[in-house]
Amino acid sequence: MPEISPVIAPDLAQLELPHDPAEVQAPVVRGGWLSVMAWRVAIVIVGLSAWQFASGRLIKPFWISSPSEIWAQLATWIATGELWVNVEVTLTETVLGFVFGAVGGIVVGLALGLNRRLAAVLDPFIVAFYSLPKIALAPLFILWFGVGLTSKVVLATFVVFFLVFYNTYAGVLAVEQELVDVLRLMGGSRWQIVRKVILPSALIWIFTGMKSSVPYALIGAVVGEMMASNKGLGYLIQAAAGQYDTGGVFAALFVLMIIATGLHELLKQSERLMLRWREEGQNED
Amino acid sequence: MNDAPLIEFRGIARRFHGRAGTVVACEHVNLSVRRGEFLAVVGPSGCGKSTLLNMAAGLLTPSSGQVFYRGVPVPSPNTDVGYLTQRDTLLPWRTVEDNVSIALELRGDSRAARQRCAHQWLARMGLTGFEKSYPAQLSGGMRRRVCLARTLAYEPETILMDEPFGALDAQLRLVMHDELLKLWTGMRKTIVFVTHDLAEALTLADRVAVFSPRPGRIRAIETVDLPRPRDVFRVRFDPHFGALHDRLWSYLEASVRGDVMVN
């Protein structure tokens, strides 16, 4: 009887974990946390001072604005309440897109990972959609769903979905057959094996996918807003740029940076909680 | 009826088809495992010993011949066997106690019952105090003992062991032999134990089957009539042990030397 080679879609099977730049650990330095912090603060102070100095003296403020101007802009936005309204819109789009995309990606990734035949059939379609720059779909979604929240949520969902789906799928394929066999011999049902072996084993991959998709959810929301909307940080950037207000553009970018960092940190913490066994094992060595 | 073999390999051959062509792992294998016996299978690496275990577990089908368990063809998977593989198959995200009691969890035992069972087995293995540890926090020898505890905890009728102590150092291996024999004496499970170490096989088993190199065939089956309980630390100095070892080694030697020549 010939050995049955597993039906694995070649393109999907050769997946590797996406490189997540935020995953690169900051190197541990002698001298401790305090000196590292001191250096960081120093860099910020020097950088901002140089920027402030250069603005108006070396380069026209029109091009680079200045930290003080950006701060003033932020203060105005906070005072008028404009900031919160727009942050709320962008955050809502990002979070909804992320949640829908992640849930969809996990479900479909699991389904295809557990059903290799279906995966083999759908492989070319998935690759085709995956290769498509998702942002290019924005005009279509705006056409379909209007300039409001929905079109941005759909765009963000789409972007997140593929990243999480791919990772989940690869994670399921990476599960060690021996672990599965041990539970089968113990009389474990298919569902028990999925719950107790396949899901926990794939969780590292799923989290990597989710973590790396957070910035993309934000990109989806902001790009959608920049194309057509009347609210959100993308809209703020677009509107400010339209009025040649460089300070406004920088202020909005600054807020975006804070949001992105915050979201990433949130996910990192929840990953830590869920994958506690990894940490404890490593600490011992 | 009780004398009927528990596991029976009848005319087994197994071929693997790979890129480099077809490899015959084993052929013409006829072997009966009696209920309650400790059978060791010895042979050079790559002679299809693990293949036999996989077939007894119903994880692999023979290319020809048939494997019977309790008189009927082996189901896939065979849930009457517990399998202790060469590699660690603990679930790294579960604590030691949750690993040990996983089979009980699968069949729906209560949390309290699971915990009681796990603690009892860990105590027997000398692992009290490590219940809440994760596998990565344990040494290789401790992980092996957790694996063994997990296999014994749900009391499968038969236990298949594939070079279970191969990765341990010589002293620890003897300690594990001692523990295994004590446990087995208490439970009298049927054990099929695969190893390439003849001394290990003779120390533990009631019968030893010696395999030739690939394609693996049975060269000899010898009854190990050393009295029990055996002192695993001294039994190898017993003159009868020496005689058995000499006789079986002559079967193995030819194949091992042949192996060296081929390479």
Molecular structure report:
The complex is a heterodimer of chains A (285) and B (263). By secondary structure, chain A is mainly alpha-helical. Chain A has a single domain (67-278), classed as MetI-like fold. In chain A, 78% of the residues lie in helices and 0% in strands. Chain A has 13 helices and no strands. Chain A has helices at 10-13, 32-54, 61-64, 67-80, 82-114, 116-131, 138-145, 149-173, 177-185, 190-227, 233-242, 246-274, 276-284. The two termini of chain A are 46 Å apart. The model of chain A is unreliable at 1-19 (pLDDT under 50). Chain B is α/β, with parallel strands linked by helices and 263 residues long. Chain B has a domain at 88-156. Helices cover 36% and strands 24% of the residues of chain B. Chain B contains 8 helices and 10 strands. Chain B has helices spanning 49-56, 96-100, 102-106, 111-124, 140-153, 170-187, 198-204, 239-262; strands spanning 7-18, 21-33, 38-42, 64-69, 72-73, 81-84, 158-162, 190-195, 207-211, 218-223. In chain B, the strands form 2 sheets. A 6-stranded mixed β-sheet of chain B has the order 6-7-8-3-9-10, with helices on both faces. In chain B, strands 2-1-4-5 form a 4-stranded antiparallel β-sheet, with helices on one face. In chain B, a hairpin with a 2-residue loop joins strand 1 and strand 2 (21-33). In chain B, helix 7 (198-204) packs antiparallel against helix 8.
